[in-house]
Amino acid sequence: MKSDPEKGSMKPAPLLFSCRLTLFIVCMFASFNFLLQRMNISFALVCMVKRPNSTSLSELEASLDFNSSSSFFSDSFDLPNLTIRSDEDLFLNDSHAMSSMVSSSIVDDEDDAVCRRMAASRSNSSKSRFIDDGEFEWSKDVQGAILGSFFYGYLFTQIFGGWLAERFGAKKAFLGSIASLSFLTLLNPIAARYGPEMLFAVRLLQGLTHGAALPSMNVFSARWCAPTERGMLMGIAFGGFGFAAAFTFPICAFLCENFGWESIFYATGAFGLLLLVVSYFLIYEWPENHPRISAQELEYLRKTRAVSYSSSQKSKKIQVPWKKIITSGPINVIHITHTCFTWGFLMVGMYMPTYLKEVLYMDTSQNGLYSSLPYMGMLSIHFTVGTIFDFFRRKNCCSVSTLRKVFNTVGMVGPAISMILTGFLSCTNIEFGIAMVTIGQAFGEFSFMGGYMLSIFELAPKYAGIIIGITNTFGVLPGFLCPLFVSLFTPNGTREEWILVFGIAAGMNLLGALLYAIFGSCELQSWAANTERRASSISGPINGGARRNSQLQQNGMLKEQEMLPLTNENRKDQPDG
Question: PROSITE patterns under this entry (predicted)?
Answer without folding.
Answer: MFS (PS50850)
